[in-house]
Amino acid sequence: MKVMKEKNIIRIKRYESPCGVLMLGSFGDKLCLCDWQVEKHRDHVDRRLKRMLNAEFKEETSEVIEKAGKQLDEFFAGKRKEFDVPLLFVGTDFQKTVWNELLKIPFGKTISYGEMARRIGRPKAVRAVANANGANSMSIFAPCHRVIGSDHSLTGYGGGLEAKRILLKLESVL
To answer: What are the residues facing 31 on neighbouring strands?
Structure first.
C-alpha cells in the first residue's frame, strides 16, 4: 500500500491594487506569491509553487499576508519605498539569483535586462534574465517592473504594460 504524503498549504488571498488584482500567498511565515491575477503565466507560476513546495492552495489569510497587504497599501499611497516582508523565492538557482538581484534595484531607479545580466556575472544571458524576470512570482516586492529595455522601452510585464507604467509613475520614473 502506497502512503500518500500530506500536502503542505500555501495560503492565498486576493489583493486589490490600483493597477489590478494581485494574488498574495504565504508558505509558513514567508510570502511566496504576489502575482497579477491577469498574468498569462499565472497557472505556470501556480504549478511551479505547488510542485516545488508539495502544496495546495487554500483561500485564507496569514500574518505575513496581512503584513504584505498593509505594506502594499502604504506603497500605493506613496508612503513606503522599501518592504521588509520575509520572502520565499521558489524556482531554479538561476531564477533565484535574478530575483535576488531585483531586490537591489532602488525605488525610483530602472535598469536594463542587459545591465541586470552583467550584474549577476552573466553578460550574455540577457534573454535568460528576461525569462527569469517573467517567471518572478513576487511582483512589486521583487521589483521586476524596474527592469526595462536597453532603449528605455517598457517591455513585457506580467500585470500588463499599463500596470508597469502606473508603478513606474508612482516611483517618479516616468
So the answer is: 26, 87
